[in-house]
Amino acid sequence: TRFSRITGTGSYLPPRRVTNADLAADLAQRGIETSDDWIVERTGIRARHFAADGVNSSDLAFEAARHALEAAGRNASDIDLIIVATSTPDMVFPSTACILQNKLGIAGCPAFDVQAVCSGFVYALTVADAMIRTGSASKALVVGSEVFSRILDFNDRTTCVLFGDGAGAVVLEASDTPGLLASDLHADGKHVGILCVPGTVSGGNVLGDPLLKMDGQAVFKLAIGVLESAARATLEKAGRTDADIDWLIPHQANIRIMQGTAKKLKLPLDKLVVTVDQHGNTSAASIPLALDAAVRGGRIRQGDTLMLEGVGGGFTWGAVLLDF
Ligand code: ACO
């Protein structure tokens, strides 16, 4: 049998770091009141990074991909599949994956985007794993990259304090031993309205509102339940238990959701990888960013069992269990 295994991780944050105090000062100029205390207490976020004007998801993806390739000891020319998870693509089309492919100086391999908002990375990893298992690919680049700052409404304090920009990437290769153990993906489109960017382009104009709208409490309530059920489903499929998880790497949206999930899985909080404090919510980029931070920080080691979990607009959710 053929399996897939992560052989390298990489990430990239745009250099401009904005603390809660910086953001509160900016918002105060618009007559909007927020504070470091409010943001930290409700979300755990202390800072986020924002990309400079003209820097797009493909630029962040390129830097993250370079680092992942280097870690895997591979050249871009070795890659035979590119999947980018993003909800903030450079263009309506072509895909950010095609733009990234060109920036990497390669051509010919399939390249496409996956759009599942904050679940995008677990969706993309699952698709890449399936393509590797069936022999359609053998060395995939799987990237999550976002410039959420472009779709934030800086007149809405309930959302603009939550998100940031960044990218994370992995090289996923065919292997005789597993790697990716199990995955569990879901969507429920009846919840479109609780988290969306409702605008689109039509007739040369933007039709509808192109900024992020979120009913935070509705998202919060849904998130904890579905994250637990997806995690349990992957464990069951893989014949493993809670006790086998070395590291929980959930989508980094809100520390309270993350800690709630860890508790439901009976995991001590020191097994929870946390970057939300420094990155904010970077949507599809948050899981590979957190993964890379924990790998480079020496916490995650080869052989560790990782539970990756995403939840986001759609509503979409899912989990991937893997041996690193
Ligand atoms: N600064 C100061 N006050 C604020 C701010 C702010 N930035 N934002 C809201 N408030 C005020 C509200 O106006 C409200 O005031 P009121 O009581 O006078 O009306 C008060 O704070 C409480 O607001 P709530 O919305 O009840 O705050 P809550 O405790 O629910 O926290 C939050 C809001 C952080 C958004 C929370 O609901 C949450 O984290 N939800 C999940 C969101 C999430 O994780 N989304 C992403 C997952 S999917 C994805 O990543 C795309």
Automatic annotation (TrEMBL):
<dbReference type="InterPro" id="IPR004655">
    <property type="entry name" value="FabH"/>
</dbReference>
<dbReference type="Pfam" id="PF08545">
    <property type="entry name" value="ACP_syn_III"/>
</dbReference>
<comment type="pathway">
    <text>Lipid metabolism; fatty acid biosynthesis.</text>
</comment>
<dbReference type="GO" id="GO:0006633">
    <property type="term" value="P:fatty acid biosynthetic process"/>
</dbReference>
<keyword id="KW-0511">Multifunctional enzyme</keyword>
<keyword id="KW-0808">Transferase</keyword>
<feature type="active site">
    <location>
        <position position="281"/>
    </location>
</feature>
<keyword id="KW-0012">Acyltransferase</keyword>
<dbReference type="InterPro" id="IPR016039">
    <property type="entry name" value="Thiolase-like"/>
</dbReference>
<dbReference type="GO" id="GO:0044550">
    <property type="term" value="P:secondary metabolite biosynthetic process"/>
</dbReference>
<dbReference type="GO" id="GO:0005737">
    <property type="term" value="C:cytoplasm"/>
</dbReference>
<dbReference type="GO" id="GO:0033818">
    <property type="term" value="F:beta-ketoacyl-acyl-carrier-protein synthase III activity"/>
</dbReference>
<dbReference type="InterPro" id="IPR013747">
    <property type="entry name" value="ACP_syn_III_C"/>
</dbReference>
<keyword id="KW-0444">Lipid biosynthesis</keyword>
<feature type="active site">
    <location>
        <position position="251"/>
    </location>
</feature>
<dbReference type="InterPro" id="IPR013751">
    <property type="entry name" value="ACP_syn_III_N"/>
</dbReference>
<keyword id="KW-0276">Fatty acid metabolism</keyword>
<comment type="subunit">
    <text>Homodimer.</text>
</comment>
<feature type="active site">
    <location>
        <position position="118"/>
    </location>
</feature>
<feature type="domain" description="Beta-ketoacyl-[acyl-carrier-protein] synthase III C-terminal">
    <location>
        <begin position="235"/>
        <end position="323"/>
    </location>
</feature>
<comment type="similarity">
    <text>Belongs to the thiolase-like superfamily. FabH family.</text>
</comment>
<feature type="domain" description="Beta-ketoacyl-[acyl-carrier-protein] synthase III N-terminal">
    <location>
        <begin position="112"/>
        <end position="189"/>
    </location>
</feature>
<dbReference type="Pfam" id="PF08541">
    <property type="entry name" value="ACP_syn_III_C"/>
</dbReference>
<dbReference type="GO" id="GO:0004315">
    <property type="term" value="F:3-oxoacyl-[acyl-carrier-protein] synthase activity"/>
</dbReference>
<keyword id="KW-0963">Cytoplasm</keyword>
<keyword id="KW-0275">Fatty acid biosynthesis</keyword>
<feature type="region of interest" description="ACP-binding">
    <location>
        <begin position="252"/>
        <end position="256"/>
    </location>
</feature>
<protein>
    <recommendedName>
        <fullName>Beta-ketoacyl-[acyl-carrier-protein] synthase III</fullName>
        <ecNumber>2.3.1.180</ecNumber>
    </recommendedName>
</protein>
<comment type="function">
    <text>Catalyzes the condensation reaction of fatty acid synthesis by the addition to an acyl acceptor of two carbons from malonyl-ACP. Catalyzes the first condensation reaction which initiates fatty acid synthesis and may therefore play a role in governing the total rate of fatty acid production. Possesses both acetoacetyl-ACP synthase and acetyl transacylase activities. Its substrate specificity determines the biosynthesis of branched-chain and/or straight-chain of fatty acids.</text>
</comment>
<keyword id="KW-0443">Lipid metabolism</keyword>
